[in-house]
Write a structure and sequence with these properties.
seven-stranded mixed sheet, N-(1-d-carboxylethyl)-l-norvaline Dehydrogenase, domain 2, alpha/beta, single chain, 11 strands, four-stranded mixed sheet
Length: 298
């Protein structure tokens, strides 16, 4: 497949590195404007702490025009600008895959001529310095259609290409349910770890129990408005299990605060608040936690 990965962050380099391993793939990277200079090589450290250097093939108008797949690996607040930059540069037959955290980053999917999919991941990866990525945790990917239509043949080819590059991965018809589950997990783990400057596992401390309970109740009420039904005990157990499984990890929002970057709070807890307003629901704990995170942003 002809693939363009957009974004040189942790997930972008994770996919770029693994997709380039297959000779059948022609892969190029489109860097965001935040990259002051782009080197000829990138560096990748795998789960076994083995490091290697790889050649960076940069995308241009030709590779964009010929792309079968656009893997959009940018922050949620960068999605709208990234899509605008692709206008008239990619084929209407190309597939756009969104890999960002949160929900509500792009409201006009129905207007795009290209089929759009969401790719959710539980893999851990971090940037140690520009164009240096480290794979920190093995996980799973869920891929699903969110707008437009694709044939079963193209769906199977796309799923196989991505799964072979970075297993495990499965195609799901229930992508909205899985988006909501990931959102719920992020709504609890990300802001608390960012505000408290703690590793994920420290959320298991009893002092956070009341806050976590309040957040979960608000999330469940808002999710129900979008016809997503959670059981409190099951959702709480899932969130705490993720915190346990990633105990030593630094959440992406905490990392953003530590690196003095803008966070994705507006598309995580902010999405909960926005939907709550439409539904006429009160979500004071989510509103408060958003203000606490914003106070830490530069």
């Amino acid at each position: 497949m002809n693939i363009v990965v957009i974004g040189q962050g942790a997930i972008g380099l994770l996919w770029y590195h693994h997709l380039t391993k297959a000779q059948k793939n022609s892969v190029s990277l489109s860097c965001s404007a935040s990259a002051s200079s782009v080197p000829k090589h990138y560096h990748f450290t795998d789960l076994n702490n083995h490091s290697e250097q790889g050649l960076l093939t940069l995308a241009n108008n030709t590779t964009l025009a010929n792309a079968d797949l656009i893997l959009l690996c940018v922050k949620s607040y960068q999605v709208k600008a990234a899509i605008a930059a692709l206008t008239n540069k990619i084929s209407t037959q190309a597939i756009i895959v969104f890999c960002h955290n949160g929900m509500g980053a792009y409201q006009d999917l129905a207007k795009l001529p290209q089929p759009c999919l969401a790719l959710l991941t539980t893999h851990g990866c971090k940037i140690t310095r520009p164009f240096y990525a480290q794979h920190t945790g093995l996980g799973h990917h869920d891929l699903g259609l969110i707008a437009g239509d694709i044939s079963s043949t193209i769906r199977d080819e796309l799923t196989a290409t991505l799964a072979q590059a970075l297993p495990t991965l499965s195609f799901t018809e229930a992508i909205k349910d899985k988006q909501w589950l990931k959102l719920a997990i992020n709504c609890v783990i990300n802001p608390i770890t960012a505000i408290e400057n703690i590793d994920n596992g420290q959320l298991l401390d009893d002092k956070f129990k009341s806050l976590i309970t309040k957040l979960i109740h608000e999330i469940i009420a808002v999710a129900a408005y979008e016809n997503i039904n959670f059981d409190f005990n099951e959702l709480q157990a899932t969130i705490l299990q993720v915190a346990t499984n990633t105990a030593k990890n630094c959440s992406s929002m905490r990392s953003d605060i530590l690196q003095q970057r803008k966070t994705e709070i507006d598309y995580i807890n902010g999405y909960i608040v926005n939907v709550a307003r439409k539904a006429g629901l009160g979500v004071p704990q989510n509103e408060e936690i958003i203000q606490q995170v914003r106070a830490l942003e530069v």
